[in-house]
């Protein structure tokens, strides 16, 4: 489903066809690098340099006839031509701001009216283009993946932290400030979904359904009722209402825990050649690095510390059960 920002951009591009995603991105980059305003001469010069053919005629739904920009004899902008582009950009930017700040239901009506006759392939193409941009964005790098063992053990989450974790992302990396350029400038399906979930959360706080800082389980239970999809580790918290502690979503009964230990130790011995009887610190460090690398390659980001902690617990269990003797220090 299209979010309000996506709908606003679509409507504005329909009303001001010259003002498309590429122009929007150029404006943003120029403002950031040159420390100027959205419609400054610096921005207009950058637009004319990059898109002179596109801006030679200014199109809008308010006029049936495109307005030709006044040019010098050598094809440059006259003062009048520059002001024409400035006025056009100001109108487009204001229209976009008004739509984003206005009533979402009214915006959706306008959007649906414009798109009802649009070819489905075009809508699919636009979404695929956004997904392709997202594919290479910072929030899809390995460092942006959530380390659930860490975050699920924390007593409380803030709204941005909860939203990031609900999308499987590391709250220290993926947060509103880092996503703003993707939402406001180039259009990002992931960024829009983050903003949508954060908006739902903030509305829930305002009506008292949530607190600004809540336990992981409280968030999971609310998200479940709100039909927000969650990673399995977070979803599992909502299934543990009878538990005496908040937990980290990984509490196991004794039989399941023993099975997990057997699997972990078996894999370490069979795949990584780990001899538990001779496992010194240096040997373990190498094995843990190899295992962490393989897990990253498979798309499961787990820290070296987490692997080490689970191994230590499994080895202690194996020693207590008599499966192995205490390790010999190397």
Question: How is the topology of this model organized?
Answer:
Elements: H1 4-15, H2 21-34, H3 41-51, E1 57-60, E2 63-68, H4 79-101, H5 104-115, H6 120-135, H7 148-151, E3 157-158, H8 159-166, H9 176-186, H10 189-206, E4 213-214, H11 216-225, H12 232-235, H13 254-270, H14 281-297, H15 304-321
Antiparallel strand pairs: 1-2, 3-4
Helix pairs in contact: 1-4, 1-5, 2-3, 8-10, 9-10, 13-15
Overview of this protein structure:
Helix 1 crosses helix 5 (104-115). The model is unreliable at 242-252 (pLDDT under 50). Helix content is 59%, strand content 4%. The chain has helices spanning 4-15, 21-34, 41-51, 79-101, 104-115, 120-135, 148-151, 159-166, 176-186, 189-206, 216-225, 232-235, 254-270, 281-297, 304-321; strands at 57-60, 63-68, 157-158, 213-214.
């Amino acid at each position: 489903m299209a979010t309000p920002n996506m709908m606003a951009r679509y409507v504005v591009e329909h009303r001001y066809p010259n003002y498309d995603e590429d122009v929007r991105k150029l404006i943003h980059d120029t403002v950031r690098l040159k420390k100027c305003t959205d419609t400054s001469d610096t921005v207009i010069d950058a637009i004319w340099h990059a898109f002179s053919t596109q801006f030679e005629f200014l199109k809008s739904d308010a006029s049936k006839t495109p307005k030709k920009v006044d040019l010098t004899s050598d094809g440059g902008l006259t003062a009048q031509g520059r002001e024409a582009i400035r006025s056009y950009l100001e109108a487009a930017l204001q229209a976009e701001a008004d739509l984003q700040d206005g009533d979402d239901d009214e915006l959706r009506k306008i959007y649906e009216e414009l798109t009802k006759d649009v070819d489905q392939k075009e809508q699919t193409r636009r979404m695929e283009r956004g997904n392709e941009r997202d594919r290479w964005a910072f929030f899809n790098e390995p460092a942006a993946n959530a380390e659930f063992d860490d975050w699920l053990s924390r007593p409380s989450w803030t709204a941005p932290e909860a939203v990031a974790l609900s999308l499987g992302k590391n709250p220290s990396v993926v947060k509103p400030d880092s996503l703003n350029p993707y939402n406001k400038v180039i259009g990002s399906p992931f960024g829009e979904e983050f903003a949508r979930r954060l908006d739902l959360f903030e509305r829930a706080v305002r009506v008292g359904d949530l607190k600004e800082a809540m336990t992981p389980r409280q968030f999971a239970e609310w998200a479940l009722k709100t039909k927000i999809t969650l990673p399995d580790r977070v979803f599992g918290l909502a299934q543990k209402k009878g538990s005496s502690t908040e937990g980290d979503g990984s509490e196991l009964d004794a039989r399941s825990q023993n099975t997990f230990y057997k699997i972990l130790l078996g894999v370490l011995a069979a795949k990584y050649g780990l001899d538990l009887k001779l496992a010194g610190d240096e040997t373990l460090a190498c094995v843990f690095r190899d295992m962490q690398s393989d897990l990253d390659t498979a798309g499961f980001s787990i820290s070296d510390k987490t692997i080490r902690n689970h191994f230590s617990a499994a080895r202690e269990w194996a020693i207590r059960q008599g499966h192995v003797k205490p390790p010999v220090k190397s």
